[in-house]
Amino acid sequence: MSPPTSSSPALSAAASSSSSSPSSSSRSSEIRRDPVFDRWVIFSPARARRPSDFKSHSPASNPNPNPNPNPSKPSCPFCIGREGECAPEIFRLPPPPSGVADAAAAWKIRVIENLYPALHRDLEPPSSVPELGPCAIPGFGFHDVVIETPYHSVNLWNLPAEEIGEVLLAYKERIHQLDRHGSIKYVQVFKNHGASAGASMAHSHSQIVGLPVVPPSVSARLNCTKEFFDRTGKCSLCDIRSKEILIDETSHFFSIVPFAASYPFEIWIVPREHISYFHELDHKKAVDLGGLLKLMLQKLSKQLNDPPFNFIIHSAPFQLPQSCLPYTHWFLQIVPQLNTPAGFEIGSECFINPVFPEDAAKVLREVNC
Predict the structure, then answer these.
(1) 247 vs 182, which has greater pLDDT?
(2) Residues comprising the binding site for Zn(2+)?
(3) Could you tell me which residues are beta bridge partners of residue 348?
(4) Is 13 exposed, middle or buried (0-12, 13-18, 19+ CB in 10 A)?
């Protein structure tokens, strides 16, 4: 796939009409349709300050750009030396040397069972799931935690690109393991940073959930991208061309504020090559993605005062028919938690975003990290 250009008529027209204005506050409201999630977003700049003024009023942590790793925090079971206080370990990186017990081996990343799982791996998998109507199935599934660093004071974006790449490859390895379990249909990888984003532990970690069903939102996303493909012959993510929403790019990935971003300063990191499954990532691309992810998280932390955020990897369900692959393109979504959905959003499932994507992208491009 070529680098984003200004050749897409729909995006270019919207971008040029928006960017011609000197500031968000001088623009009229606009309603945009998201061609990936099939939802409408209202851009209402009158409801906000200038894009450059956005800051989180409740930082997720104390920003620490040059942390001095502390071997352990007494109350944190994710810290090095406290492995026995966690739920069972699934694997660690690097693997322990032959003849050395796991607890005694040094590690950089640990994948463990969640001590308080939403789903339980010891239940019987459902034999079938009804297509329609109310139903209840056993709460079978997998819920794991990826401890991204042994050190309590280190955030993910403090790590070198190579080590962030190793975290991404740990996701890949665990997804492959879950793929081999025939009852798992979809795997969701996500990270919550900050209490208001859902993180119950301050130590840098992410989570992996393996489900015996494909969530409705995933099916809706595939239906939406199929509709775009049937109409245009193109993948909706491959067809992103506007330079106005581009933040940065590397050899294998580019980062954008999506054309119809549901959230202020939302970021998508998209593979240049059309790839349906995240777990097809190789080492070279993992390091490349690690570097771009690091930069995007640094920019958000610096510009928005270390906001609480979530990131989510949107990949294809397992066992997807070959005919679906041309319009299924994985990507990573980063959502800073700067506002709270209220009655309108809950009732209509339309989002109100006070920052035009072109303005957010411009601000983020200019953040020097």
Answers:
(1) 247
(2) 76, 79, 152, 203
(3) none
(4) exposed
Query: Which CATH code of 3.40.50.280, 3.30.428.10, 3.40.50.2000, 3.40.190.10 fits the domain covering 9-61+216-366?
Result: 3.30.428.10
CA gap 91, 1 in Å, rounded:
35
Strand order in the sheet with 30-33: 30-33, 40-43, 351-353
- What pLDDT is stored for residue 300 in this prediction? 96
Q: Which amino acid is at 200?
A: S
What is the identity of the amino acid at 277? Y
User: Which region, left, alpha or beta, applies to residue 272 given φ > 0 means left and ψ of -120 to 50 means alpha?
Assistant: alpha
pLDDT category at 18 given cuts 50, 70, 90 is very low
CATH architecture of 83-123+139-211: 2-Layer Sandwich (3.30)
**Which residues are annotated as part of the binding site?**
76, 79, 152, 203
Please tell me the distance from the alpha carbon of residue 27 to that of residue 337, in angstroms, as a whole number: 24
Q: What is the pLDDT of residue 180?
A: 93
Instruction: Please give the structure tokens belonging to residue 280.
Output: 């097809």
| Residue 274 designated active-site | no
Catalytic residue among 205, 279, 314, 329: 205
| Sign of the torsion angle spanned by Cα atoms 94, 97, 103, 106 | negative
